[in-house]
Amino acid sequence: MGEVDPAFIQDPEHRPKLSATEVEGIPLIDLSLINSPHSVTDPRVFEGLVAEIGNACKDWGFFQVINHGVLLEKRQRIEAAARKFFALPLEEKRKIRRDEGNVLGYYDTEHTKNVRDWKEVFDFTVEEPTLVPASPDPEDTEETEWYNQWPEYPPELRNACEEYAREVENLALKLMGLIALGLGLPKDRFNSYFKNQTSFLRLNHYPPCPSPQLALGVGRHKDGGALTVLAQDDVGGLEVKRKTDGVWIRVKPTPNAFIINVGDVIQVWSNERYESVEHRAMVNSEKERFSIPYFLNPAHYTQVKPLEELINEQNPAKYKPYCWGKFITHRKLSNFKKLNTENIQISHFKISE
Fold first, then answer.
1. By the number of CB atoms within 10 A of the CB, which of 95, 282, 309, 333 ranks highest?
2. Does 1 reside within a domain?
3. Per-residue pLDDT for 292 more than 50?
4. So what's the pLDDT on residue 161?
5. Residue 338: is its pLDDT beyond 80?
6. Total number of domains in the chain
7. Which domain holds residue 260?
């Protein structure tokens, strides 16, 4: 992956603080109730489960799920294909390198501005083509389409990715139904937002890092979308910033579990009843690490704003509406060129009290 940027060593603001508390950490939630053959649709049956998820979203912004219904063979297949792809020579992987013209595909941080991140990545979208705004300019009404780039090898990668995406999408939408119930909303309240979704998956590979004290796999950040469903291997490395005291908590890998976190979109929809939380990925000096996040995102034309059912005179809207498509287009293009404005955040739409 190349040398660690010398400027990084001199930058105390971004230099990783490697201390993290080793505790059980984020809640572990059993979803067998909604995935067993004998599950029922009566919402009252789910009250305990709904409360568990609601409390996890409120207190942590993160939780793990087991007995989630995603077939283990689908996960194993995509993980095996990802390992084969990342083992290819660099020149082969770069044949499908993403750029400003095609934001999907492969990239490695050696040739990006994110020199502090020690990883390589392959992105693909769930719906192909995915319709998005042509530019982040509010005055520009043109649309464009995102298409996936697939490598020649391994030949099974595409099918493995597409099958896994369908499995994890189903889980994500089930979770959105439970989150809706936890907010006192109908179970299908969020469904319409994802009919023309802009969701995508990412295959992450973190090679062994010779100077792990000087780099991160991914620096601290919050996810901009609605919900993230993460599969990580047994090496681990994910750390979550605990809301109560700001301490970084290392998430211990649980076999065949998924790690779930709410994103900025849910923070706005819920008018901050649930908040997205900072997290980061650590690197390892001896072992490579793999992870697969699925980012559930709404349709590009979605106007993201606090839901009317959750605001009133005592709890007024905390955010102005913003266009999700313009938001994600701005985020994607900022990976390839310096824009005239800073990287967009939901704080830009926060209503001053």
1. 282
2. no
3. yes
4. 97
5. no
6. 1
7. 6-349
